[in-house]
Amino acid sequence: MTPASVSAEPRVADTHDIPERELQVVQALHQHRVDGIILAPSTTSSERSVTYLRENKIPAVLVDRLVSAEFDQVGVYNAESVERLVDHLVGLGHRRIGMVPGQPGFATTLERIAGYRSAVARHGIDAEDDLIAPGSIDIDSAADSAEGLMRVAHRPTAILAGNNLATIGVMRGLRRGGFAVPRDVALVGFDDFDWADSFEPRLTVVAQPCLDIGRVAANLLLERIKDPDKPPSTTRLQTSLIVRDSCGSHLQRPASPNRDRNP
């Protein structure tokens, strides 16, 4: 997208997180002679857009998914934020904590899984493979993953969702399986969103400073346009833990017909 202070009208495009679409968008923006591009790259395995930016010397800032230190980048401390969520759950007595990550292959997903593994290891909890669901590409796949987690032999007492779509999907999957939050399983999520405070129960999350990320990215791009040869920088911002009702006040494991059918 083009900064408004450089060109008269910013251009905004949605890549739908599809690498091929992403490259087409970057090329189209370049052909329209934009002054610079702020890009949320898709999977780390698809570097065509980043390579195109580099080879054509287009001023660019990468946001959210920090995949190349050759560019200015801005995002959050993903691993540390997930560790805070795990710490919160462990503090409530949970020892079986499942995770439904976000989109497979995304830098954010990989960092958040690493944070989960680090936190459970620090607390002496086994990060068993059956507690980490396959990455979820949308709400439906996250719902399926949540149902799968609740079918394992020793199912989790808490689930950590890797992004807002995963959180919504997990809620859907749990309700579809007859489980209630937080009565049967606690739930925490990565990303706050408009409805998180309106869900029943209200959701405990880590919130990203989205406005600050946008401001930092825009300023970095303006600086890059003015000085193309300055060393690139990576900026990570802190998230905020927002504690609401979706974990209850302590570990809750009452007898339930829903759980009895899945020993």
Task: Give an overview in words.
The protein has 263 residues and is of the alpha/beta class. Helices cover 37% and strands 14% of the residues. The radius of gyration is 20 Å and the shape is elongated.
Which keywords apply here?
263 residues; four-stranded parallel sheet; 9 strands; 37% helix; disordered C terminus; alpha/beta; disordered N terminus; five-stranded mixed sheet
Brief characterization of the structure:
This protein has helices at 19-31, 48-55, 78-91, 107-122, 139-149, 164-176, 210-226, 257-260; strands at 37-39, 60-63, 72-76, 97-100, 158-161, 186-190, 204-207, 234-237, 240-242. It is of the alpha/beta class and 263 residues long.
Average pLDDT, rounded to a whole number, is 88
Q: Count of helical segments?
A: 8
The SSE string, one letter per element, is: HEHEEHEHHEHEEHEEH
Quick one: overall form? Answer: elongated
Unreliable stretches:
1-8, 254-263
Strand order of the largest sheet: 4-5-6-7-9
Helicity level, as a percent range? 25-40%
Beta strand count: 9
Main sheet summary: 5 strands, mixed
- Percentage of residues in DSSP E strands: 5-15%
Radius of gyration: 20 Å
Distance between the termini: 52 Å
What structural category do the secondary elements indicate? alpha/beta
Secondary structure elements and their pairing?
Layout: H1 19-31, E1 37-39, H2 48-55, E2 60-63, E3 72-76, H3 78-91, E4 97-100, H4 107-122, H5 139-149, E5 158-161, H6 164-176, E6 186-190, E7 204-207, H7 210-226, E8 234-237, E9 240-242, H8 257-260
Parallel strand pairs: 1-2, 2-3, 3-8, 4-5, 5-6, 6-7
Antiparallel strand pairs: 7-9
Helix pairs in contact: 1-2, 3-4, 5-6
